[in-house]
Amino acid sequence: MDIKGKISSSVGKFEELAGKVPGYKGYKQKELRREADKLLRTTIANQLSDLRMKLSGLQLDFLSAGKLYLVDDLERAVGKLQILIDRLKTASYGYAGLFDAVKVKEEELDALYEYDHQLLGFVPRIEEGIGNIATTLKEGGDLNVAIAALITVLQEMDTVLNHRQEAIVGTGETQ
Question: What's the whole-number average pLDDT of the chain?
Fold first, then answer.
């Protein structure tokens, strides 16, 4: 799924003509990178929202199975997942206006896009972790281990998201 490529290939006749205006082409390429970055993060956030619903549904399964003592641990995972969703929805997508303190270059926009691809890789891992919790509940395994494994994956994703933010703030040029 290369969103940046799809956006670039959908350039219309007007944009082709405008691309001949000095300075416009570079501006438009940055805008395409920003839009691809935003679309990818929105896609990831939507997928994680679906997984959060599944995880919330497991809380009811825990109650039905008499595992009330583990509901708080599972709620911790739900909370971490919701924080990740919120951070993805509100994360900077490399915009830097004329008077902003931090300027974001094209290479940095590409780096953000690469971080977002790393974030996308966490979606199946989180889905697997949730499935593992459900299976462990049904089979009577150690739910503490299954929940802890999911929380570890969520923390790893949070770390990548932190590195993404540092890439924006730490590598930008100040005026």
Answer: 81
pLDDT at 90: 87
What is the reported pLDDT for 114? 83
Q: How far apart are CA 69 and CA 71, in angstroms?
A: 6
Please spell the DSSP secondary structure of 112-133, one letter per residue. HHHHHHHHHTHHHHHHHHHHHH
In the three-class reduction of DSSP (H, G, I as helix; E, B as strand; rest coil), residue 12 is classed as: coil
Asked if residue 25 lies in contact with residue 19, where contact means CB atoms within 8 angstroms, the answer is yes
Asked whether residue 4 is assigned to any structural domain, the reply reads: no
Are the beta carbons of 94 and 108 closer than 8 angstroms? yes
Residue that the structure tokens 């390429």 belong to: 29
pTM of the predicted protein model: 0.76
Domain around 97:
11-174
**How many distinct structural domains can be found in the chain?**
1
Which residues face 174 on adjacent strands? 102
pLDDT category of residue 32 using cuts at 50, 70 and 90: confident
Measured CA to CA, the distance from residue 134 to residue 72 in angstroms comes to: 16
Q: Strand runs (DSSP E) across 75-115, as ranges? A: 102-103
Residue 131 lies in a domain: yes
SS3 assignment, position 87: helix
